[in-house]
Each structure stands twice: as structure tokens, then as C-alpha cells.
Amino acid sequence: MDIESGRTAQRQRLFTRPFVLLSLAELAYFSATGVAIYTLPVYVTGPVGSDAAGVGLAFGAFAVVALMLRPLAGRVADVRGRRPIMVAGALLCAVCLALTAQAATLGGVVALRLLLGAAEAAFFVAAVAALVDLAPQSRMGEALSYNSLGLYLGLTAGPPLGELLVRTVGFAAAWVGAAVLAAGAAALVLGIGETRPPGPLGQGARHLIHRASLPVGLAFLASTVAMGGFFAFAALHAADVRLTTTSLPLLTYGAVVVVVRIACARVPDRVPPLPLGACAILTMAVGLTVLALWTSPAGAVIGAGVMGLGIAFSTPALFAAAFARASADARGAASGTLSAFLDLGIGGGPILLGLVARSSGIPAAFSVAAGVALLGGVRAIVLAVRERQSAAGAAAVAA
User: Fold this and answer.
1) For residue 294, what is the enclosing H or E element?
2) Does pLDDT of 323 surpass 60?
3) Which of 91, 330, 341, 398 is 20 to 30 Å apart from 117, CA to CA?
4) Mean pLDDT of 342-366
5) Closest CA to 64 of 369, 346, 384
6) d(CA 333, CA 321)
7) What is the pLDDT of residue 396?
8) Which is nearest to 283 in space by CA: 353, 345, 226?
9) What is the C-alpha separation between 314 and 148, in angstroms, rounded?
């Protein structure tokens, strides 16, 4: 009995060596991405000699390729394994970042950004599938909460590091520094080992799109559209309401996400994921409504904090709900499908809401984003009710 109890405890252990290495690899990779987020605009408008339109083209090229290749990356991760896809993505990222230091034209930068989009699709999709492989089912939400900190911390720490390198050493040092971080991510992945469950591949590994994830993905899309709109206009809104430090709403949002995901990491495993996801998206709608209606410095900061509270729970809950519907040989496909919705929302949300902001103002854009989040929350509630009814029906048949 004691031996069996020990085995059960070992199976339920979350902070294993592979889990920690995966989290550190993601921290390194997304720190490299954060360095590039700062460096790219000033590099394109500086040494390359382009303008804001060129910056938009470079960023857009990355997102379009990442969106197109995520489902393919998921299928390859299911068939070939997670580790080779992560290593290939991280190394391709390192090469692209290092070569950007030598790109003297906008066309050269855009070409490297296209390849970088492919690298990001490969690394991120395989990393999420590996995380699901490594995490005990009973602690999936907690694993998603802790693991996501690598992404958030990397994207938060990367831009200041990029600014420091550009100002003190130059653009070439910033691009090479980012490349070293990406290469470090590849080295960390090598220490993880292959996480894909052994055995023959089933039907799940044959599909590019994981259809069972699509209903949850639509709710996730609504949350990412709202999130993308907040990211795009939070600083501009802060300036409009005469907030002295215009980055304070984004800083508040980021701090709330990090603190809540650490303090409440186990909540997604104690509350059914779809109801939790619905509450989280509706909380985002409340935050956006505060931003839209309370047009003052206090409203901007408080609205951002409420947004952060919703986002802190929405992604872990909805990813857990989707992966509960995925077999072991379809986790890559599920990861690719869900992360494609992330690209659609983060990329499409600012475009849609930008049109509203141009014609009616930023508060109106936040109002529309709140409406989108409300629809997403209702969608998650409907899915939760259907899931509960199906479970009740199955239990009645079994009885």
C-alpha cells in the first residue's frame, strides 16, 4: 500500500526536472521575443530607413506566417515528437535574430520575420503539447498557470533588456543578445527528453485541426480579441485621460496577471474549467466597461487591473477545457488549433477595434471589445451547460 501511495504521489508531482527545464526554455525564448519587440521598430525606422508602415509590415508578416503554420506544427509535433520541433523552432529563431543585425533593407527584415513566424509556430505549439504531456491531469490548470509565467515574464523583461543593449552597445548587440537567448532555449529543451506518450499513433495524429477544440476555441477567440484591443489602445487611452505614466495600465495589468497566477495557480483544478473560463471572460468585459465609461486616470488603472484578473484565469481555464477533449496523440493538434485563435484575436482585434476607435474614439472601441467578451462568456456558459447535461445523460444511461 505504501509503495502504491508513493507511486501515486510521484505521478501527481508537478515540479519535475523536465517541467522546470521547459518553463526555463520558454522564459529564455520569450525574453528573446521581448528584446525583438523593442528593437524591431527602432531598427526599422532607424538604420533600415523605413517608416511606421514598414514596422507594421514587419510585425504583420510574422503574425500571418505563425497563424498559417500553427496547425501544421501541431500535427508534426504529434507525429515526430515535441522535442525536435521545439529545438528546430528555437534554433531557427536564433538564426533569424542574429541575421537581422545584417539586414540593411526592409525587404531583408521582412523575409527574416517570415521565417521567425515559422519558428514561433513550431516552438510554441510543441511547447504547449509538451506541457500537457508532463503535467498530471489533476494539476493541469496549475501547470498552465505556472508555465505561462515564462511567457509573461519574458515579454515583460525582454523590451527593457533590448533598450539597454541598443542604447549602450548598439543594434547588433541587441539582435545577437536575443539570438543567444533563443539558442539557450534550444539547449534547455535538449535536456527535457521526448515527452510524447509512447505507442502507436491513433486517428488524432492525422488531423491538422482538432475539431473538438473548436467550440472552446471560439470562446477563447472572443477573449483574445478583447485582450488585443486592450493591448493596442491602453497606453493611448492613458494619455487621453491625462495619466502621467502612460505605461501604468499595462504595468498594472501585467502585475495582476503574474500575482494572481502564482497565488491562485490551483484554482483552475478546483473549479470546472468552462464555468471558470466563462467567469474570467465576463470579468474581462467588466474591466473593458470600466475603461470605456470611467474616463479618468483612476478608471484607466482600475479597469486594467480588472482586465488582468480576468486574463489571469481565462487562458489556463480554456486551455484546460480544450485539452480535456484531446487524446494523447492529438495534443499537438489541439495546441495548434487553440494558438491559431490566439493569433486571430491578437492580430484581428486591434484591426477591428482600430476602425471603431478612428470613427468613434477609444472608449467606444473598449465598449465594442466588452461586447465581444460578453459574447465569449455567454458562449462558455452554453458549453458548460451542454457538457453538464451530457454528463448527466450518460450517468442516467449507465444507471
Assistant:
1) none
2) yes
3) 330
4) 82
5) 346
6) 15
7) 56
8) 226
9) 12
pTM score, whole prediction:
0.74
Residue 57's pLDDT is 78
Asked if residues 224 and 345 have their Cβ atoms less than 8 Å apart, the reply is yes
127-158 burial string, b = 16+ CB within 10 Å, else e?
bbbbbbbbbbeebbbbbbbbbbbbbbbbbbeb
- Specify whether the CB–CB gap between 330 and 71 falls below 8 A: no
Q: Which of 257, 252, 260, 336 is nearest to 300 (CA)?
A: 252
The closest alpha carbon to 126, from 342, 346, 339, belongs to: 339
For 271, what's the count of Cα atoms within 13 Å in the CB-facing half-sphere? Answer: 18
Is 369:229 a contact under the CB 8 Å cutoff? yes
Categorize the per-residue pLDDT at 395 as very low, low, confident or very high, splitting at 50, 70 and 90: low
- CA 92/CA 89 separation, integer angstroms: 5
Length of the chain: 399
- CA-to-CA distance for 90 and 27, rounded, in angstroms? 12
| Residue 327 phi, psi (nearest 5) | -75, 170
Q: Are 366 and 248 in contact (CB under 8 A)?
A: no
Whether 210 shows a pLDDT value over 50: the answer reads yes
Percent of the chain, pLDDT > 70? Answer: 90
* End-to-end CA, the chain: 31
Q: Is 210 exposed, middle or buried (0-12, 13-18, 19+ CB in 10 A)?
A: buried
Sequence-distant (6+) residues with CB within 8 A of 186 are 25, 86, 87, 90, 91, 94
